[in-house]
Write a structure and sequence with these properties.
alpha+beta, 44 strands, Agglutinin, subunit A, ATP binding, seven-stranded mixed β-sheet, about 25% strand, flat
Length: about 800
């Protein structure tokens, strides 16, 4: 900072000691500033601008904008993201003499940050924080004359109304750039920008693209089909001679949502859940964390099956455990022990030479170089004799790697997978070679034993590999084709039965890698093998957090089996209706209902081809280890074809969830699932079956529900085991939603997309009418002929 600038800063503090305390609530003018704990607050109270830190122990402070109505400090824009200040009382955000908004650090007499806009000398400027989170620097006398705005200079958050654009005249492209880690807003390695062809891409290190949105088709980007529902946002796509950009706006201004370039290399849409005071992930791409380039850094290995996803390969440890703890794995791993390198058979004993650690079923690293050799042994020697070689693989040919290894992934069954040999110091691996002289006889005996053992090991390894290959052949790089004998083995001849349903029985199994699976044996299916494979392959491409993922299948002769992830908490019915010491609390029930709705919305509205489940009931909702709901058996109607309706209507208990269309023989649409969902939602609320028959008479709970909802007494429907411990606003909302879903006429029922909005609180839910069918069952409260189990305390006066 030059003497002149330092003098200006000094004079500012000397002549204006009281200016800071008197600035306007949402703006900074030439006579006002921000320092210390002072803040700007937008007129509507949505956003705050001021100094903040994410690490109180580091004394690193930043000027940023964050949500005022969110309890968790969530910055959406940062000015000095790479240059923090250490003392906010000696730092000043003000309008500089040239009209720009500038951040000064008086303790070191330095200009830290500036808007750097071109402003005429006779213009007076003002900085205003708007209620949409946009900080605007404009002409003080003409509000339409804007010199700079934060929404066009984003950091890692894409706010509603903003755009990430390509200026075709200058060639400059705006970017979202991730934070370095969860506490450091400095620019990270991952960024999002728009390409010249009009599609957005996520890049690693501003160089390598690993995900794109696809092209704009007039309604959505081709690789983001979720956009087609359009229930949450309105979209604008512009491509003209000057610029190319996309923009979105939230339909409901009360929704607090943000789109971010996350520190983990994924673009994410998050929604603030006020009830639980946390951000909920609504959408992310790429879906698989291990698809992010170099996510785990050098010599780091990614594994989708583990919670942390990243680990160091054998012989390596985290370079920076602190960074790993903050979600930044880019530093990767470093060797525990130095390589001997350079040593050869003449200059070093065998025990001192570097050795190779074998990793099977891994995605091979990037940037491998092919060598022309004739054997696995020659490939190993080629790597061993080059000090820069860190790994080799021998498959279709010899491939070696020099320097850091990036993009390793374990338990990988893709086409670019294989066996990798990583170079380690000899001491990292156990030695099987003895040093010293032995007699020729002993050596011969040892050699013979070694040969015999090697042959046995070879035979066993070949057998095991063949079995594994048989059990894990891929279809289009996604689904696994299992042999029936393999499934017999992993399920111990189908001895552990989990349950039975409309389409067959389900058994638990454990794969060779200890992964628990659920195997469903389909019964009564006469579909041909070719058609079955085609339909199952289509279902295997469907991925959603609230759908049970299909892992593979078996088709041999008349045998048809499907393989899914095992869900440790079983089905929803076991927690609602069966005697259980741990009763699901209301928060869990509401979260489960919302998750089911999102899963069905995905099947109906977001898949390339609409999928109608046709058998929604608690038995077909599974719960994972965290009690997250997973819709099971989706797509089986498609698989079973003509057999489906017969199987469905003949199954005991299922009839209670069937929409009138089934009984009347009308065409089945997604609204049939909506009806079934409504029936099940009533059971989630009440903890009792909708229909119950006993010697004392029948009980049909939807009649009771319709009456109470119509009387604004939905609280009476709540499961008595909860003892009233529930969010009554949610009870009221969900009860109304359920009664809208079970209307007789399908055109009166909402779509599942609308149901999601209702449960999320984005759409007001009015009192639904009592359906014609239920009106015929509505009776006087004192008439016990239908045995309606309505507590006396809930009758209206």
């Amino acid at each position: 900072m030059g003497p002149a600038c330092a003098f200006i800063v000094l004079m500012f503090f000397l002549i204006s000691p009281s200016i800071c305390a008197s600035h306007a609530s949402d703006s900074i003018t030439t006579n006002q500033s921000i320092s210390g704990k002072q803040k700007l607050i937008s007129v509507g109270g949505n956003f705050v601008l001021g100094f903040f830190t994410k690490d109180e122990s580091s004394a690193k402070f930043y000027i940023g904008i964050w949500y005022k109505k969110v309890s968790e400090l969530t910055p959406v824009w940062v000015a000095n993201r790479a240059t923090p200040v250490s003392d906010t009382t000696k730092s000043l955000l003000h309008i500089s003499p040239d009209g720009n908004l500038a951040l000064l650090d008086q303790s070191i007499n330095s200009l830290v940050w500036s808007t750097n806009a071109t402003i005429s000398s006779n213009s007076s400027t003002v900085a205003v924080l708007l209620d949409n989170g946009n900080l605007v620097l404009r002409d003080a006398d003409n509000s339409s004359n804007i010199f700079w705005q934060s929404i066009e200079n984003p950091t890692h958050t894409w706010l509603s109304g903003g755009k990430i654009a390509l200026n075709k005249i200058t060639g400059v492209s705006q970017r979202l750039i991730s934070w370095k880690n969860s506490e450091d807003p400095a620019p990270g390695l991952f960024s999002l920008e728009i390409k010249k062809d009009g599609q957005y891409q996520i890049q690693w290190n501003m160089s390598k693209s690993y995900w794109t949105t696809g092209l704009w088709d007039g309604r959505a980007f081709t690789k983001v089909p979720e956009m087609t529902s359009g229930y949450m946002c309105d979209y604008t796509y512009v491509n003209n001679s000057e610029e190319n950009y996309f923009s979105y706006t939230l339909k409901d201004n009360s929704t607090i949502s943000r789109l971010i370039m996350d520190v983990k290399g994924q673009i994410k849409m998050l929604i603030w859940e006020e009830v639980n005071q946390k951000w909920i992930q609504f959408w992310s791409e790429p879906e698989a964390q291990c698809e992010v380039t170099a996510f785990c850094g050098p010599f780091g290995s990614c594994n989708e099956q583990t919670l942390q996803k990243c680990s160091c390969v054998k012989g390596f440890n985290q370079k920076s455990p602190k960074d790993w703890g903050l979600g930044d794995y880019s530093g990767g791993c470093v060797r525990n022990k130095r390589l001997h390198c350079g040593a050869n058979n003449n200059s070093a004993s065998f025990s001192e030479q570097d050795k190779f650690f074998q990793m099977s079923s891994v995605r091979l690293p990037d940037l491998g170089q092919a060598l022309q050799v004739s054997s696995d042994h020659e490939c190993m020697l080629a790597c061993l004799n080059n000090c820069s070689c860190t790994a080799y693989a021998y498959g279709a040919g010899c491939t070696v790697w020099y320097g850091d290894l990036l993009n390793l992934q374990e338990q990988y069954e893709g086409l670019d997978g294989g066996t990798l040999f990583i170079r380690l110091a000899a001491s990292e691996l156990p030695s099987h070679h003895k040093i010293g002289s032995v007699s020729g006889l002993v050596a011969g005996v040892v050699a013979a034993v070694v040969v015999v053992v090697a042959v046995v090991v070879f035979i066993l390894s070949v057998t095991i590999r063949r079995r594994r290959r048989r059990a894990f052949r891929l279809v289009n790089g996604a689904l696994v084709v299992f042999r029936y004998s393999d499934l017999q083995r992993v399920t111990k001849n189908f001895s552990h039965k989990l349950g039975s349903g409309s389409f067959g029985s389900v058994f638990k199994g454990v794969l060779l890698d200890s992964t628990a699976i659920a195997v469903k044996k389909l019964e009564g299916l006469r579909q041909g093998e070719k058609q079955f494979r085609a339909e199952v392959s289509t279902l295997g491409t469907i991925q959603h957090v609230n759908l049970v993922p299909l892992r593979g299948f078996c088709v041999e002769g008349t045998k048809r089996l499907l393989v899914f992830d095992y869900m440790p908490n079983g089905s929803l019915d076991s927690h609602l209706f069966h005697s259980n010491d741990n009763v699901l609390d209301w928060s869990a029930r509401y979260r489960i209902a919302l998750g089911i709705a999102r899963g069905l919305e995905y099947l109906h509205e977001k898949c390339r081809e609409c999928i109608i489940h046709c058998d929604i009931k608690p038995e077909n909702i599974l719960l994972d280890a965290e009690f997250n709901p997973k819709v099971a058996d989706f797509g089986l109607a498609k698989l079973l074809g003509r057999e489906f309706s017969h199987v469905l209507t003949s199954m005991r208990g299922t009839i209670g969830y069937l929409a009138p269309e089934w009984i009347l023989g009308l065409a089945i649409t997604p609204k049939a699932d909506v009806y079934s969902f409504g029936m099940m939602l009533l059971e989630i609320i009440s903890g009792k079956r909708n229909a119950k028959w006993s010697e004392n008479g029948s009980h049909y709970f939807p009649v009771e529900a319709a009456m109470k909802v119509n009387e604004n007494m939905a609280h009476c429907l709540l499961d008595e085991r909860l003892e009233g411990n529930a969010n009554m606003e949610e009870v009221n909302t969900s009860s109304r939603v359920a009664c809208w879903c079970i209307q007789d006429m399908e055109n009166q029922r909402p779509t599942m997309g609308m149901v999601v909005q209702m449960l999320e609180g984005l759409v007001e839910v009015t009192v639904p009418p009592i359906s014609v069918f239920l009106q015929g069952l509505v009776i006087d409260p004192e008439d016990q002929s239908h045995n309606l189990e309505i507590p006396a305390s809930c009758y209206s006066s």
